[in-house]
Amino acid sequence: MASRDMVVGIFFLSQTVLGMLGNSALLCCFIIADFSGIRAKPTDLIVKHLVWANFIVLCRGIPQTIAAFSQTYYLDYVSCKLAFYFHRVGRGVSLSSTSLLSVFQAITISPSSSRWAQYKPRAPRIIGPFLGLCWALQLLLYNFIFVYTTNIRGGRNVTGIQDFGYCTVINSEKLISILIVILIAFNDVVFLTLMTLASGYMVFILLRHKQRVQHIHRSLSPRSSPETRATQSILTLVCCFVIFYATSVVFTSYLSASEGSRWLSNTGAAMAACFPALCPFLLIRHYASFFRLCCSSFYQTIHCACVVREF
Question: Cys-Cys link to 155, which of 35, 168, 204, 247 (CB 3.0-4.6 A)?
């Protein structure tokens, strides 16, 4: 085994295990909350879908890790198609769920005098249908993967392939490749733009509110204000989201339009899994008090609590 393959295998193994543990912790907290009778907020449904989408994306790290440690590991014909298809679907749902989370939060904190205030009562009711629409859209968008993905044996006698170590992707005609790249990039850019605009709007609202009450915070405590801490959390989430997914879009578009090397394929897969692996740890910061409440409810076997979560 080459040292480069060992490094790649260790990286994918660490990334997959870390991401699985973080998302599992977040999911277990929601399960405990449901059994404890804790009242759910509308954003919790979005986070649950986000967690399941993250699980799907991180599952691709398993064959990546095995292929890096074992040069004779290959997926069969059907498994290759399903692995690539659900990875891309999970990635798309993770992207759209995070964007929806930002948009919903922006509507929630908008002042009553803004044009967004009229959507506050209706926003919680459309979360479920919108999440269903996101799943349906991503399931339809990546149907082309079933046509161009095959196993190692099926790609040996085909010119113009991308070798991922355990599966191969057959390059389509140039015009079709361009259309696929445009379609995928458009899907990603739309959701990235929505999240960036919504997060920028939230930061603007919070900073303006901070200026109005700045004299109160100065007289009460020298610590940073809640608005400042919330703004920093939003900026952290947005920066991670935009950096990882924008980089992933570049790698995906390049790989779809050309014959990339194994190293480039591994880099693209690693970047696509970075945000799903780190996302739960960013969200856990918001749910810190909620986690303490869940643990207290679990150990004290309190099943009838009705508490509104702070997010």
Answer: 168
